[in-house]
Amino acid sequence: MRASRAFRWFAEIGDDPALAVSQATNLQRQVPLLYGLLLINSFAVAITHRNQAPSVLTVSVPAALFIITFIRMVHWLRQARKGVPTPQQARRQLRAITAVSGPVALAYVGWSLALAPYGGPFEQAHVGLYISTTVIGCIFCLIVLPQAAMLVAMTVLPAFIIMCLARQQLIFVTVGINVALVLAVLLRVLFNSFAYFRNQVLAGTLLAAQHEELQRLNEENRRLALTDALTGLANRRKFHADLDAWTTTHAGTPFAVGVLDLDRFKPINDTYGHHVGDRLLAEIGTRLRLAAGPSAQVYRLGGDEFGLIDPDVAGFSRTCERLLQQIQAPLAVGEIVLHVGGSLGVAHCPEAGTKAADLFDRADYALYHAKHNNGGGVCVFTAALETAVRADRAIELALQGSTLEDELDIVLQPIVELDSGRMSAVEVLVRWNSPVLGDVSATEFIAVAERSTAIHSITRAVIRKGLQAALQLPDMVAISFNISACDLTSATTLAFIRREIERTGINPSRIWLEVTETAVMANAEVAAEALQAFRDIGVRVALDDFGTGYSSLGYVQRLPLDKVKIDRSFVTAIDQPGGDTIARAIITFCHTIGLRCVAEGVETARQRSMLVEAGCKHAQGYLFSRPLAVEDLLSLHAQWEQHPWRVDSPQRGAA
Fold first, then answer.
1. Angle formed by the axes of helices 170-225 and 121-141, to 10°?
2. Is the separation of the CB atoms in 320 and 306 below 8 Å?
3. Which of 27, 29, 366, 611 fits 379 for a cystine, CB–CB 3.0-4.6 Å?
4. Are residues 376 and 410 in the same domain?
5. Measured at the alpha carbon of residue 213, what is the angle toward residues 211 and 217, in degrees to the nearest 5?
6. Angle between helices 605-614 and 581-593 (to 10 degrees)
7. pLDDT, tens digit, for every residue of 559-576?
8. Given this model, what pLDDT does residue 549 score?
9. How far apart are the first and last CA of the chain?
10. Are residues 555 and 423 in the same domain?
């Protein structure tokens, strides 16, 4: 049984690929030392016996041994220069050194025993010292290959003990026993060290496998984060990242930027439902990808809007024509044949600008012009469209010259607790009726305000009016404000919010501040400190439009957040088969790290049902209510308190 185990022990040399590579790599550094030790020690013994023993033992035999040893040493030095071996090469090297170790040890010990009778006590003691020290050194050099070390020890030790006993002198017998005990302890240490070495290799292999799997998962998550779930195209995040790259790493290289929007999509979506609309978008995405050609990259920016980046500036006009032709071609969804059109705004670098934001804005201006002035088709940004840019300047001037406290109004959109159907919070949205420009959409004037100091005045007015409205709401209804990137890091805004909370006496825990991913990731470390400063005064923090910005899951875990709001694009995707994957993943992620979760843009009963099933606790959207003035909201809240909101409730139409 023991012989069988020993045979299996030797037979398994090199079978574990990772362990074999580590053993061979170590031996490439240590075996040349082993052979060098043999040469030096053996040469010393031959020198001390040159006048005591026959020349065949002091010249001929050691010369043959030295030549073989030197050849083997050179061979291992060459192996070391080749670097890390493959598992197959390592296996061959380990088996070769094991096979050679026994004969080499036998040859050297035989030669030393042949020398032992010659000379006086000093020469004989030198032979004993040579055998004992050399075998110990060889065992240390073979510490990562215990089979070879054991062969050397079992070859040398019996011969050494026999030599000592043959002298029939107490000192030699004592030395023999002493060396035998030392070798026994040394072998025990060798096996312990090898066990530790093997465990380290196995642990390193496991860690490497885990790291590789983690890298694969991270890459998959990154791919998903940069991919639109509905169309399979690159998403808005990827578009802005690529646009930034083209304007920085490829600075000075001409390229074209396009923003494409579908015409007549909304009526189709409203008439046939989101399911048909989503299938239409998916098919349009496929057509765009195939028609874009080898150089143009197509992105879905959100809704029915797509982006384009193409370094082939000369051929981009033909690419645009192909894309619009594909969009205009009839498209069958089941038994329904749909007809849509497209409008495309184009900006060329460097003619329209050299910064990513300028190029995108001007392509967007060109799109607006194509839709509202050209009735569709392609519009290239030119100097003539600077008028549109000046319109933004007009908004900026109107903001600077306005009394925002008087001109701004707020509306409140309910956030519903899905389990109970009751209102748990409201989001404050701002409206501006300018005496100069009339009604200006928040999308337009907020974007302009963020480029000037007017955003701080808007924020203060909205917070003041929102907190005043909160005094009229029940204490259990929280109130949520959107904070821009400019206000996020503003100590003045922080101090203002603190003063307003103290002035109104509202419990800070009722107040939520929503900040977008883009605002946070502009400078994640500074944003984290700013968010914590807001939390320190008692308010809570939500990450808005999650999934559309630049944040990674790791950053979200490190940010001081209380809640995540799932972007409406992921909620909209729920209505398509398999479109709930990302929404479910975000909900699970939030639960895992202990964050609350709110779904934005809920518009269908199907979306609500899936969110409830996935464990989402709160949602907002037109399915429940559009934004309302505070008086209308109080009336709606009273109705819901008596009859909590239901999917089939007649309140849906009233809201």
1. 20
2. no
3. 366
4. no
5. 115
6. 40
7. 888 999 988 888 998 888
8. 53
9. 84
10. yes
Taking the C-alpha atoms of residue 101 and residue 66, their distance in angstroms, rounded to an integer, is 15
Q: What would the two tokens of residue 597 be? A: 């979760």
Average pLDDT over residues 533-538: 91
String of b and e for 129-164 (b: at least 16 CB within 10 Å)?
Answer: ebbbebbbbbbbbbbbbbbbbbbbbebbbebbbebb
Exposure class string for 301-311: b at 16+ Cβ within 10 A, else e: bbbbbbbbbbb
Name residue 653's amino acid. Answer: G
Burial class (CB in 10 A: 0-12, 13-18, 19+), 523: middle
pLDDT in tens, 67-105: 988 888 888 888 888 888 888 888 888 888 888 888 888
Q: Is residue 397 part of a domain?
A: no
| pLDDT at residue 545, rounded to an integer | 79
305-310 and 255-263 strand pairing: antiparallel
Sign of the C-alpha dihedral, residues 613, 614, 615, 618? Answer: negative
CA angle 105, 111, 116 (to 5 degrees): 120
602 phi and psi angles, rounded to 5 deg: -70, 120
**Nearest CA to 434 among 469, 395, 479?**
395
Distance (Å, rounded) from C-alpha 342 to C-alpha 450? Answer: 30
Render the burial of 195-229: b for 16+ CB within 10 Å, e for the rest: eebbeebeeebeeeeeeeeeeeeeeeeeeebbbbb
Residue 526 domain boundaries = 404-639
pTM above 0.85, yes or no: no
Q: Are 543 and 517 in contact (CB under 8 A)?
A: yes
β pairing state of 331-333 and 336-338: antiparallel
13, 98 in Cβ contact below 8 A?
Answer: yes
Phi then psi for residue 129, to 5 deg, are: -65, -40
Q: Distance between CA atoms of 450 and 513, rounded to whole angstroms?
A: 17
- 380 CB-near residues (< 8 Å, 6+ apart): 346, 347, 348, 366
Residue 13 CA to residue 20 CA, distance in Å, equals: 8
SS (H, E, C) 286-349: HHHHHHCCCCCEEEEEECCEEEEEECCCCCHHHHHHHHHHHHHCCEEECCEEECCEEEEEEEEE
What is the CATH classification number for the domain harbouring 367? 3.30.70.270
Q: Which of 292, 291, 279, 259 is nearest to 338 (CA)?
A: 279
Q: How far apart are CA 576 and CA 278, in angstroms?
A: 7
> Per-residue confidence at 550, pLDDT binned at 50, 70, 90?
very low
Element of type H or E holding 606: helix 605-614
**Same domain as 135, residue 176:** yes
Residues 283 and 350 in one domain: yes
CA proximity to 105, closest of 43, 35, 58, 11: 35
Query: What whole-number distance in Å separates Cα of residue 428 and Cα of residue 475?
Result: 16
Bond from prior residue into 103 cis (ω within 30 degrees of 0) = no
- 196: CB partners within 8 A, 6+ apart: none
Mean pLDDT confidence for 473-487: 90
Backbone angles phi, psi at 263, to 5 degrees: -95, 145
pLDDT exceeds cutoff 90 at 141: no
What is the tally of structural domains in the chain? 3
Whole-angstrom distance, CA of residue 542 vs CA of residue 616: 15
- Residue 569 belongs to a domain: yes
Identify whether the C-beta of residue 316 lies closer than 8 Å to the C-beta of residue 256: yes
Rounded CA gap, 373 and 519, in Å? 33
3-class DSSP state for residue 132? helix
